[in-house]
Write a structure and sequence with these properties.
Number of domains: 5
Distance between the termini: 46 Å
Strand content: 25-35%
Shape: globular
CATH superfamily of the largest domain: P-loop containing nucleotide triphosphate hydrolases
CATH class of the largest domain: Alpha Beta
Number of helices: 14
Largest sheet: 8 strands, antiparallel
Strand order of the largest sheet: 11-10-16-7-8-15-12-13
Amino acid sequence: MDTRCIRNFCIIAHIDHGKSTLADRLLELTGTVDPRQMTAQFLDQMDLERERGITIKGKAVRMLYRHPSGQDYQLNLIDTPGHVDFSYEVSRALAACEGAILVVDASQGIQAQTIANAYLAIANDLVLIPVVNKIDLPTAEPQRVAQELVQTFGFRPEEVLFVSGKEGTGVPRLLEAIVQRIPPPRGNPDGPLRALIFDSRYDPYKGVVVVVRIVDGAVRTGDRLLLMSTGVQGEALEVGILRPQPVPTGHLHAGEVGYIATGLKQVRECRVGDTITLANSPARQPLPGYQHLKPMVFASLYPAEGESYENLRSALERLQLNDASLQFEPENTPALGAGFRCGFLGLLHMEIVQERLEREYGVNIVITAPSVAYQVRLRNGKEMRVESPADLPPAGEIQEIREPWVEITVITPARFVGAVMELVRERRGVFRKMDYLSPATGQGLSDNPAYDARVLLEYELPLAELLADFYDRLKSSSQGYAYLDYSFLGYRAGPLVRLDILLNNKPVEALSFIVHRDKAYEQGRALVERLRHLIPRQLFEVAVQAAIGSRVIARETIRPLRKDVLAKCYGGDVTRKRKLLEKQAEGKKRLKRIGQVEVPQEAFLALLRREPKG
């Protein structure tokens, strides 16, 4: 098809604003999916997506649309996630498109991730089509939301479209706007092949299957391929399009979106963001690719059974092919054995990875509590990155420790502003600004906070504070009405210390963590109290201590088990009883001096394991 009749676009929005439902109506109106096979949120094929009601993976699909003028168009849609933890999926989709549909819920209005995704699309020089969705709801206020779009992003009022993804109202006009407003793809159809990989998966028969946007040239089945960043060569075993199931076509041309089965068996050889060209006539320059995102949250994964270590490694490698933002490296601890230190983009990303490993790959795993990475400047001038507290150098060698900070954006009804500000203040937040997005509506008509004026709050906050149930506390303090988005700011020095846990004066490295000095006593006290109940009693007294360097800040004592050595005495002289008791006391002293406190794995798991929260 002529590139002038191709439109590549994606749908971006805040979570639960109706992206997938709107995509269903587009699929129906263009006849892409048989009505007998159509299900709600058709593109969300993963069980995890349907259970949670969120999009986790971006999906590409080709639609054929006949304009009222009689001209046929090829529409390539990429549905994207809405949660902040999957912004990497959104950025990859935006790089493969020329336009984006910005969807906003008519009852909720602009939310935190709406702003983040819109600015990401603007930075990629995409044409935005503003859409107010869910206009059929009884609580919908489409005109107010349209005014928010005009005020926040500078759209003209006539640019805003009003649709109902559930009922299909306004969707035909949206299809016309896609053709009229979004420009056709740019590229050289006659030049050397350059195809951008924006997604991939592993097939046991076809090897690595990549989803690509053809920027220049063309590719056909049987062509010899070259991956420009790794230098690896492969063969195009199958070339086709997604409707949304794979349909082999044998060729893809400039401007089109489709898939290529490369036949590569090593998942490390094919990376998202790489450029594919032809081995016999390669392009000179690769495409820009994607900015590599550094993980923000770290946790360790261990197989529940030791013999499953290799299965866990294989599962992580294949999942990394499908989720390019996941990073991992092997680690070994005396307490939990062999496992992997993994990096994630956020807490939800961590929970999704855990569930996908267990469901899709059948690996039963244990995940430790999340932490962040720190930058350490030593007194000799060197700098190092510390992802595990056990790697922190001795305090005498450290000049300063820098922790990651993020900029958070909270949008909440006005009545909850005080509670939200108090919560952020407790977490060492630094206030930046407060704006009113919209005036209050319906005063005196209802006690529903949804009718309050909505306020945007911006703060700077340490990432470590965000991990510690911040989201749950935010939802509780706002009755579920507040929304959160965050972006990485940089590293800042602070009064950070390593808190060690000692058992009979011997440190347990697996239980060490880095904490702000002002909160060290509170967290150390809580930890030793939990350990007192989790560690089984020994035959000797066990001291459980929390310490900063050589200074103990909290202590609990595990009382010893007591054997009744007098049970065999039936009467007799008191000196015999005293002799037995003195011998027992000497044995306890000797045990306390040479005895080893074995912390059972169950105690570590109960202490470290973080139960997912909604």
